[in-house]
Design brief:
The chain is mainly alpha-helical. It is built from 11 helices and no strands.
């Protein structure tokens, strides 16, 4: 494996993750800097609360695509080296969470991480999707996100031990899940204090008033 291609694939993965999909969609759809509203996250949940279903769904699709594409590029560039796939998955989550293009203020990394997991292990990605059941029952996206992320991480580890996934992917499951949990620390604090807001209604598609006004 060419070390330059290995390093390059990780840089490309970070850059893909750092593409500010939520920020761009907010600007194009409503002329809104989504970082100034709600939680300040550029992720799909804040988009849903602030701008509605269609912008949120657009961000979800783009974020999933970023994750899958990052792993795919690493696969091609490094001739199928499993460590490069796993680390590209981590890099794209880090890029999405702390994007250089938007002041290092990004999303929680869940959808981007899920996209990477779809490319790495569709079985684990399917297990991760069970987190949506928790969202439906509790109405708390953060709870479902953390539950699904943890399930997916465990699934990859188990699949690795039984020979259904490369053991190298455990690097992605552990580090990627840790990054997502770190990005949810404020949500965890609000859950513990009872201040976390459930998702009950999509934001109305109109320009919100700036926090600075």
């Amino acid at each position: 494996m060419d070390p330059l291609l290995f390093a390059g694939s990780l840089i490309v993965a970070y850059i893909l993750g750092a593409l500010p999909t939520g920020l761009v969609v907010g600007k194009l759809v409503r002329g809104v800097d989504i970082r100034k509203y709600g939680s300040g996250s550029t992720g799909s949940t804040n988009m849903y609360r602030t701008l509605g279903r269609i912008p949120a769904a657009t961000v979800v699709g783009l974020d999933i695509a970023k994750g899958a594409l990052a792993v795919g590029i690493a696969w091609i560039a490094t001739d199928g080296n499993e460590y490069s796939h796993a680390l590209a998955g981590v890099a794209v989550i880090v890029g999405h969470s702390w994007p250089v293009f938007s002041g290092f203020r990004g999303g929680r990394g869940v959808m981007t991480g899920w996209g990477a997991m779809i490319a790495l292990s569709p079985i684990a990605a399917g297990i991760t999707a069970l987190g949506w059941i928790i969202v439906t029952v509790t109405r708390y996206v953060s709870v479902g996100s953390l539950f699904g992320t943890t399930l997916g991480a465990i699934a990859i580890i188990v699949l690795g031990f039984v020979g259904k996934a490369p053991m190298e992917y455990v690097v992605f499951s552990i580090i990627g899940a840790a990054v997502i949990w770190i990005r949810h620390f404020d949500n965890i604090g609000r859950l513990m204090s009872g201040a976390e807001k459930p998702v009950t209604e999509a934001g109305r598609p109109k320009r919100a008033r700036s926090h600075e006004s």
